[in-house]
Amino acid sequence: MLITNETLECITEHERILQEIESTDTACVGPTLRSIYDDQPNAHKRFMEKLDARIRNHDREIEKMCNFHHQGFVDAITELLKVRIDAEKLMGQVTDTNRRLQEAGREVTAQTEEVICCRIQQRNMATTVEKLQLCIPGTTAVCVPSVGCTICFCRYYAALKTMEQLEKVYIPRVSQYRFCQIMAENLPRLREEIKEISMSDLKDFLESIRKHSDKVGETAMRQAQQHRTFNSAIAKQASMGHYTKPVYSLNGRTHTHNGLMIDDNTGDEDEADEEILTAQDLVDFSPVYRCLHIYTVLGDRETFESYYRKQRKKQARLVLQPQANMHETVEGYRKYFNQIVGFFVVEDHILNATQGLVTRAFTDELWNMALSKIIAVLRTHSSYCDDPDLVLELKNLIVIFADTLQDYGFPVNRLFDLLFEVRDQYNETLLKKWALVFREIFELDNYSPIPVETEDEYKLVVSRFPFHDAEIEKQDFPKKLPMSQSVPQIYTQVKEFIYASLKFSESLHRSSTEIDDMLRKSTNLLLTRTLSSCLQNLIKKPHIGLTELVQIIINTTHLEQACRYLEEFITNITNVSPETVHTTRLYGLSTFKDARHAAEGEIYTKLNQKIDEFIQLADYEWGMAESDGRASGYLMDLINFLRSTFQVFTHLPGKVAQTACMSACKHLSTSLMQMLLDTELKQISMGAIQQFNLDVIQCELFASSEPVPGFQGDTLQLAFIDLRQLLDLFMVWDWSTYLADYGQPTSKYLRVNPATALALLEKMKDTSKKNNIFSQFRKNDRDKQKLIETVVKQLRSLVNGMSS
């Protein structure tokens, strides 16, 4: 039978499977057998045959081995049977011995068990003692209930130290116990509780310091004022003799000067026992220190610093908010300053007493913010003040406020700069107040020379006003001083104004030269603006007559002369020589000169108005045939008025009286000329011309009588020259001379204008036509009429020639 390759491979594979079955665990036989069935369809039959052959082969080998060992096995069983009887005997003896031994050792066993139990108890006790010794520090001296008691007594730092010991030392030793785990879990809660309690105390502190900061500020400012007063007194003593000047600080500490120890409690006898209070005396800062320490220990210092600074910024903004009616009373300003000072005194103490809670940069930022707000508030509210006393008290408060904070290291230059603005406001209120004073003085003045009955009265007036006149001093009593009672009153009030202005300059830390300049500038404002305005308004008042205006001119003259004494007065106050470079001069001279010129102008105006009133009373009969041979009544009344008025002018400067007289005469001449040439006046008779000529003659006589001394020759009469030449031309009827000499410098009628002559001649021509109906039948009248018509034509040609 031929064996193919495929059959050979199958046999080899079966052999390998059999070897695998023999060498592996029976649990792995399943996959091996399955591979047989997966092969060729008849492969399992051949494998079964192969397997049967292998089993028979193994059976033969087993049988051979059994046959080889069978005899030895039989021999062993035979010997074992022989030993069985002896073993049973021995077993009986062992059992008996064991029974007797158990009975004999039962008592020993009981005692041994007792010893073992005692040893176990002893070991447990030792272990317990050891563990208890580890737990004792954490359960007695530093236990959690103890921490709670410490918190209840506000000993937060001690509680934190206790918890730190528990957490780092004691709890790790006994961490396996449950109560320790509970303690460890409670420690964070206790820390948060301490933080919350300390933060609550801090909030209470912040609220309290917000309410009581004005008390702290009031104390600090009062001490600053006392120290400044004391130092000023010491400075005065030092100027009189040798004395070591102390340097004070508002923080209550003692300073030395030239090696001498000065205590803040030294001073006047009345203040010797007064205790110097500091911010720490008035405020309990322990909540801040405690909270800062707690947050530092807990590693959360930055959070605390941030919270504290944020809250203080909010409080700063609240402190800087003024009351709406703060400007009404000084107490409103004082409370406002006290709160701000109290706030920054507290911050300065916190800055110096703590390490880094607040920094100098933070306080400087707060101060700069506050300073800008303070300046804005003071600018706004001071502008509402119209009482100079209130503004002065405000200035004193600002000075004390600035000095107090400057002693604590805060820059206050901007506050002193603000004082210059407040000074301007103060000057404005003073000017308003003194304007009322001046008006009242002017209203109550009688505008009459001051009567002096006795020498005491004279000395009293001279003591109030620097008046010196040798002629008046030689006169016997009673006598009169040229100025009215308002002059010494005005002079005194100007000095009072200087004193009031000086009050503001005190304590401004300015030099004498600067103070002198301030006084002179404010006095200039008083003179050039307030007093000048009052004088101008007074002069313009309708009830002020010529007599009053004359007295005003006299008064301003004396006030002008007194300006140099005001210069000396300011110099004596400030001890600054007027020759010092850049010294401001008083402008009183120009003020009184302007007022005098205004009064003079008003005199001219009122005098002309009075002349116009008399002119309006004129009642000429322009068609009269002949004059009555005497001047008009209204004109005589006017001349008498002018004579009496010019007699009052004797106290005026010569030029003023002369100018007034010349102005009156010119105005009178112009008014009379306008009366003749009035367009509403259509006809004028020769009789009216004659009457008018009589009136002009009275005016010329008045001018030639020298109503005011000082005129040279016939200067005053020249005011009526135009009228005189015009009237002479018509009275003499000298037309041939006028027409022949017209335009010649030597003409007799040089001041007669052709247009003026033509206008008047036209009115006379119309009169001749109306009143002389039958004149055409008389040869002389016809010749005169022809002459008038001829002159009219010639005058018209002259007028036309002038216009062309």
From TrEMBL:
Record GO cellular component, one term: plasma membrane
Keywords annotated in UniProt: Exocytosis, Transport
Domain Exocyst complex subunit EXOC6/Sec15 C-terminal: from-to ranges: 415-763
Domain Exocyst complex component EXOC6/Sec15 N-terminal, residue spans: 50-221
Entry keyword Endoplasmic reticulum: no
InterPro entries: EXOC6/Sec15, EXOC6/Sec15_C, EXOC6/Sec15_C_dom1, EXOC6_Sec15_N, EXOC6PINT-1/Sec15/Tip20_C_dom2
Single GO biological process annotation from the record: Golgi to plasma membrane transport
Gene3D superfamilies, per database record: Dsl1p vesicle tethering complex, Tip20p subunit, domain D, Exocyst complex subunit Sec15 C-terminal domain, N-terminal subdomain
Free-text function comment from the UniProt entry: Component of the exocyst complex involved in the docking of exocytic vesicles with fusion sites on the plasma membrane.
Similarity comment text for this entry: Belongs to the SEC15 family.
Protein name (Swiss-Prot/TrEMBL): Exocyst complex component
Name of the gene this protein is made from: EXOC6
